[in-house]
Every structure is written in structure tokens, then in C-alpha cells.
Design brief:
The protein is an alpha+beta fold. Helix content is 42%, strand content 18%. It has 8 helices and 8 strands; from the N terminus they run αααααββββααββββα. It has a 4-stranded antiparallel sheet with strand order 1-2-3-4. Strands 5-6-7-8 form a 4-stranded antiparallel sheet. α2 runs antiparallel to α3 and α4 runs antiparallel to α5. The longest helix has 38 residues.
Length: 295
């Protein structure tokens, strides 16, 4: 709902003050004061504060487990945190939790038990995602070393909709290396594809405010290219897969000294849904098939 006037600003400021635990904790007390009096329960203000604080603060904490980046500790630091152990949509996490909530709304004892089971399941699933991520990360390091690639800058995050298939991206010199590992691969080495990250362009445009902003937000997992019109295109590699990234921006031509950067425009590229789902299903089952690389 908040438009900061530029797609890149909208991206990096999306999970900012509205997701910061300090500000949410402060906001929860006056909200609890209002609600407790609206409900005629002024004597229960502390309980209302606990409920509202949990309702406001747990969603950003959950966002922390995705790869996007959440600025949980504003105003003390604007570092965007993202563990990357959960995809932003995972039915195995969400559906049991939602089912328990819906059942609990009926007010029966069985409903409250179902709600508790859903909550316990969701917490266990988060814990499982962290364990699985570390196992895949260790295997990724082994595969990268075997291929003679650097392990200094690597991230591992789930492919869409589950924790059965994981995407691995590593930075090595002038290239970004992308590979996939399914838990049913049985220890098979990860096969990586190499893509130019535009290192020379990144150096030449290191002072460009938009390049600096996205490079910092994405922890360096970006690529930069220049089209035939001379415009620069910067991509965040953490969400999506080559060449279909959720966040790719046209930031205009290289800037001259003192020049103000133009407003960026966002490119939306998505792979064909049918081909993507077919590949996803096959790859989750451990079949070593090439990912779809077309639009």
C-alpha cells in the first residue's frame, strides 16, 4: 500500500518499519488499550497486549525464514535478514495451520486441540526446513569444491511449494552458478550451470545508487547487463530462477557524474506454468532433468 516512488525502493523498503519488532512492540500497547476498552475489559489490558503483540510480531518473524529480506531490527540496523529455509508459499506449512484455526473458530474442545496440533506442526515444519537447508548446504559445498568452484558466497533456498527440492546459487568470479538438489537425489552431486553476472558492468557502475541499493539488499547475489539501447538491467538472483527472476529492473543508461538516476521500471518474467510444474514435479522425485530456461 506504500508507494515510495520507485520499484527498487518499494522492494527494499517493503519489509521495513512495518515489520520491525521494536515498532510493533510499541504499537501493540496503545492498540491493546483501545481494544480492551472497546470490549469492556480494561482489567484484561495485559492479556490483550500479549495477544496483539503476538499477532503483530509473529508474521515478520515468519517472514525472516524466507529469502526476501526482513528488516526486523529497525531502527537499530537496516540490515535485511533472510534465512531462506521456507518458500513464500508452502502448503505443508500453511494448510495444517489454517485448518486448525478454522476448526477452532467453531469453539469446541476438539477445535482447540486441532488448533494446537496445527501450531505444533507448523513450528516443527520450520525446524525441519532449517535442518534440511543445512544438509543441502553441506552437500552443495561438497559439489562446488568437486567442480573447482568457490564456496565463499552461497545460498540455498527451497524451490516453490515445498522443502523437497532446493535451489543453490554460488558466486565464483565473473559467474553465478545455479543448481538444484532434491532430497530424493540420493547424494548425487549437484550439477551447476554458469551464467555471466556482468562483473565489469558492476564495477563500472559501482557508484550508481540503484546498483548499490539492490546489491546490498540482495547480499551481492545480483547480475547486471546492458541491452542494445544502452539501458542497464539489474536482477536479484534470490527469488526465481534463471532467466525468470521475480525482481529485475531497468535502471536506465549509465550515469554521468552528478546525474540523478531515473525512476526504475520492473520487468515481470515468468516461465510457462505448465512446463514449470512438470519440471518441478519430476525434479522433486529425483529425476535429473534440465530446468526450463525459456520465458
Amino acid at each position: 500500500l506504500l508507494d515510495h516512488g520507485d520499484p527498487i525502493l518499494n522492494m527494499v523498503l517493503h519489509r521495513a518499519e512495518t515489520h520491525a519488532l521494536f515498532w510493533l512492540a510499541l504499537a501493540s500497547w496503545p492498540l491493546a488499550w483501545c481494544v480492551s476498552r472497546i470490549q469492556g475489559q480494561a482489567h484484561e489490558q495485559r492479556r490483550w497486549w500479549a495477544v496483539i503483540a503476538l499477532a503483530l510480531m509473529t508474521p515478520p518473524i515468519l517472514d525472516w525464514f524466507t529469502i526476501y529480506g526482513t528488516q526486523l531490527f529497525l531502527p537499530f540496523t537496516d540490515e535485511a535478514l533472510g534465512l531462506g529455509s521456507l518458500f513464500i508459499i508452502d502448503p505443508l506449512y500453511s494448510l495444517p495451520l489454517m485448518a486448525g484455526v478454522v476448526w477452532a473458530l467453531r469453539g469446541s474442545l476438539a477445535g482447540w486441540r486441532a488448533n494446537s496440533i496445527g501450531l505444533v506442526w507448523s513450528c516443527m515444519y520450520i525446524a525441519w526446513s532449517l535442518v534440511a537447508q543445512q544438509l543441502v548446504l553441506q552437500h552443495a559445498h561438497t559439489s562446488l569444491r568437486a567442480a573447482g568452484l568457490s564456496t565463499e558466497q552461497v545460498f540455498v533456498t527451497p524451490a516453490p511449494f515445498s522443502t523437497a527440492l532446493w535451489r543453490v546459487v554460488a558466486v565464483d568470479g565473473d559467474h553465478l552458478h545455479e543448481g538444484f538438489y532434491a532430497l530424493l537425489d540420493g547424494g548425487r552431486p549437484i550439477r551447476f550451470d554458469a551464467f555471466d553476472r556482468g562483473t565489469a558492468l558492476l564495477r563500472q557502475n559501482a557508484d550508481h545508487p540503484q546498483v548499490q541499493r539492490l546489491h546490498r539488499f540482495a547480499d551481492g547475489f545480483v547480475s547486471l547487463r546492458q541491452d542494445s539501447n544502452g539501458d542497464l538491467w539489474i536482477s536479484d538472483w534470490r527469488m526465481g530462477q534463471y532467466p525468470n527472476f521475480f525482481f529485475t529492473f531497468n535502471i536506465g543508461p549509465p550515469l554521468s557524474a552528478g546525474q540523478t538516476p531515473p525512476v526504475a521500471s520492473q520487468e515481470r518474467r515468468t516461465m510457462a506454468v505448465g512446463a514449470g510444474l512438470v519440471w518441478l514435479g519430476a525434479r522433486m522425485r529425483g529425476t535429473d532433468v534440465d530446468p526450463p530456461r525459456g520465458p
